[in-house]
Every structure is written in C-alpha cells, then in structure tokens.
Amino acid sequence: MQPGPVTSLSSASEYRVIPLEDNDFGVRLEFDTRDINSVLRICRDNIGSILEAFYAAHGLMLLGELQQMREQPRALVELSRLFGPEVENYRQTLTSPRFFHQSVDEILVLSNAPPCNHPPPPKATFASDNHSGLPLRFPHQVNWHTDQSYRRPPPDITLLLAVETPPSDQGQTLFADCTAACAALDPDRRRQLESLQGIHAPSWIGRSREAVKNHTPVLALLPHQLPQRHPLVRRHPVTGEPSLYICEEKQMDYVDGPVVGLETGADGAGARLIRELLSHATREEFVYVHEWRTGDLVIADNRNLLHCATWYDAESYTRLMWRTTVMGNPGEEYHGE
Ligand SMILES: [Fe+2]
Questions:
Q1: Is residue 27 exposed (0-12), middle (13-18) or buried (19+ Cβ within 10 Å)?
Q2: What's the 170 CA to ligand 1 centre distance in angstroms?
Q3: Is the distance from CB of 289 to CB of 298 less than 8 angstroms?
Q4: Contacts of residue 336, Cβ cutoff 8 Å, sequence gap at least 6
Q5: CB 146 within 8 A of CB 306
Q6: Of the candidates 257, 138, 246, 245, which has an alpha carbon nearest to the alpha carbon of residue 208?
Q7: Which of 23, 91, 248, 253 is the most buried (most CB within 10 A)?
C-alpha cells in the first residue's frame, strides 16, 4: 500500500493526485471539471507536478470521465504531447489505415469492431481467488508485454482511452511494476542480470517461442524486421531506477535468443530465464488490474511496466480503445539513435 493521504498539488485545488487503492504503484488524477478543454488547461499549467507524480508512481496514471474526448480526439494528442517530445504518427509509420483514426493520424484504434476486427485475447482457463477472479501471473496469463519492444529505440509511454467498453469485469488491462520486481530480486541475481541483453522481435516474423517450438522455417528478414537487443535490466531515463525489461514469448527472438550469450531456442537457458523473470515480475503484489469504464484514460510507461489485456465477450460487446504512443526519451544506451 502506498503511504500518505490524498495529495493536492494545485494551490487552487483544481485537481488531486490520489494513490490507487490497495496498490503499491500508480495514481489517479481527479479534476473538479469534466470539460475537456479545462482538463487540458489544468494539465498544461501543472505538468511539472503531474510528471513528478507520474514518475514517483512508477509510471502509471489514471484519469476518468473524459467522455468528451470522443468528440474532440485531438485533445488526446495534445495531452500526450505533455508526456514526451514526440507522438507517433501512424500514417507516417505506414500503418494500415484501418488501424488508425480517420481524422487524427496519431490515434491508433484497437477494437473488435470493423474495420479493425481485432479478436479478443483468449479466455483464462481457470479462476483465481483475487478480487478480479482472474489469473494474473505468467504463465497463467501469457500475453504480458511492453509495447513495440522490437523497435530500437522502443517507445516510452502509451496512453489508452476507453471509448466503448464491455462490462468492467471483462476486457481488463493488467499492469505489472517491473521496477518493484527488479528491486525484489536478490542483489547477486540482479547483478548477474545487469550484464545480459534480451533480443526482442515482432510476433509475426516466425521467431517466437511457439514458432521455434513448431519448427517454423526461419525467414530472411527485411531491415525493419531485424530483432533488437535491449538490456534485461533497464535504467529509467527520468528516475534512474533499474527495472526488468522483458516481454512475452511472442515478442522475443527464440532463433538467436531470447538472451544474448545464453543457450538459444524454445527450451534453452535463455528461454528458461525469460520464463523465470516473467513469472517473478507478474506476481500478484506487483500487479494492478484496471477495470475499464467509458471515458477512462490510462497513461503507462513502457520503459518499466508490463501490461496484458484480458478476454471479453466480443460477440455481445464492442470494445473500442484509442491509443497514442509517446517517444523520444528512451535513455542513455540509445543516445543518438
Ligand atoms: Fe500493448
């Protein structure tokens, strides 16, 4: 549990920073207004304090009741720009137009509805006794990832707005605090990991653990598909704190990795290490379960958090999320890239 009562950082008390209940990381920003232009103005005026609160909370911040953003999509981009130097433009990155907003190129659209047609994640096969009833820990939840870790440098922060949601007990997003998970490691173990690099790769190029296990033929890669190396223990460029930087087995390279210098392949020493670290980082005490309501915005730091989407009934409900991606401060090891 985080220490301290409700914190008001604004002298005019136009907003409050509130630690997430029953959770060791993450904060909620509460405003006295639902007017989107006023929320933007308050954020702009107080961005120094808001960023301080965001990083102190290990990079997880929730804002609620932003339903007006649906009619003013540019407001999401303007808010995103406060969190870093650059916001990804999906037209420029040649993303298929069916996956981004028809009038705002910086908004990625994630939905089971057409034209996107993303299927929901598979349903967990057993219930857990935590309050959400969901299994949280890898390997019972398998899709724990950090966004686009196959890029170099990888992106910094993801902002996710719930435009339309299924009931809140479906389609949750789980977040795991890899800074806390790193700090909980035995110091000797952490020192060993500090010298190692993971190899990350897009899930669709046939280098995932499953592809290698199934003896999928290894394809020649295009320059933009090349797997990328990142430290297993990554130092956060703002806080300086070390975090585990790992990814789901779909998004690492089991042909030449997943860990540089360790035995390769689906069941080699590298694979065993990634499984051990995923299982450690997603222990219940490091995980926050977000149950979405329409108008929720979650801001999550990809440099030190893992996240994971859960199943929802896509036959009965539409889930429509808008995502922006903030880039430009990946840390010293990416200097000049
Ligand atoms: Fe993601």
A1: buried
A2: 17
A3: no
A4: none
A5: yes
A6: 257
A7: 253
